Amino acid sequence: MFLTKFVYPYVSLVVTIAFLVFLAALALRLIFNYTDPNPFGKIGRFSYHLKKRTDRFVYPAARFLANYRIDTRLAPLLTLLIAGILTYIALQIVFNTFYVIDGITESIKTGNVSAFIGFVLYGLLSALVIFIYIRFISQWFVFTRNTFLGFVMRVTNPILLPVQKLIPPIGMFDISALLVLLFIGLLQTLVLKFFVFA
After folding, report:
1. Ramachandran category for residue 171: left, alpha or beta (phi over 0 → left; psi -120 to 50 → alpha)
2. Inter-residue contact 160 to 180 (CB < 8 Å)
């Protein structure tokens, strides 16, 4: 398990540091939103440049808050919440990818066919989870419907659309996707139990 034990901790550290820097920038922006510093002073100029650089991240949240008539100055908080969730998801995806690569490599070395099949199935289910996350993110932010996003929609539609008919979205929140993710997580646990750790 080379990647999981030795590479992942460094990747996790880099991603966590990047998130903390982003957190600090948006926390400052939130403070500047309410203090409104003098635009001609040093702090005012810094505030202007900070807002300009973070606008593309904060704008979708501000637009969402405006739809519900909530103070758009709170948009950095909502952006931080989403960024925290996405950071966690990204780390989980990286860990799962390393875990699958390590598992497949180890099962090939030992000649364990059952474990090999298990890790391949686990990897395919993990890829499906990634596609569902990409689909969710594409609905939150404004993306052009390019060929990759179209492919993601074609792969996830057969799974998500029947569940969405049973449980329609509540506003912007699609509970059906959460149920599908929980079901896939259960399948992954069963795959590991019956193929890898049997």
Report:
1. left
2. yes
- With a CB cutoff of 8 Å and minimum separation 6, the contacts of 93 are 126, 129, 130, 133
Q: Could you tell me the residue ranges of all domains in the chain?
A: 1-90, 112-198
pLDDT (tens digit, 0 to 9) for every residue of the chain, 198 residues total? Answer: 899 999 999 999 999 999 999 999 999 999 999 998 888 889 999 999 999 999 999 998 898 899 889 999 999 999 999 899 889 989 999 999 999 999 999 999 999 999 999 999 999 999 999 999 888 777 665 555 567 788 888 899 999 999 988 887 776 566 888 899 999 999 999 999 999 997
Q: In this structure, are residues 27 and 99 in contact, taking their beta carbons and an 8 Å threshold?
A: no
> Who contacts 16 (Cβ-Cβ below 8 Å, separation ≥6)?
87
Say how far apart CA 86 and CA 107 lie, in whole Å.
31
| 69 φ, ψ (degrees, to nearest 5) | 55, 40
Pairs from 17-21 (Cβ < 8 Å, separation ≥ 24): 19/83, 19/84, 19/87
Q: Distance between the two ends of the chain, CA-based, in angstroms? A: 19
- At 170, the amino acid letter reads I
For helices 113-140 and 75-110, angle between their N-to-C axes, nearest 10 degrees: 160
Paired tokens of 43: 């702090």
The dihedral of CA 11, 16, 19, 25: what is its sign? negative
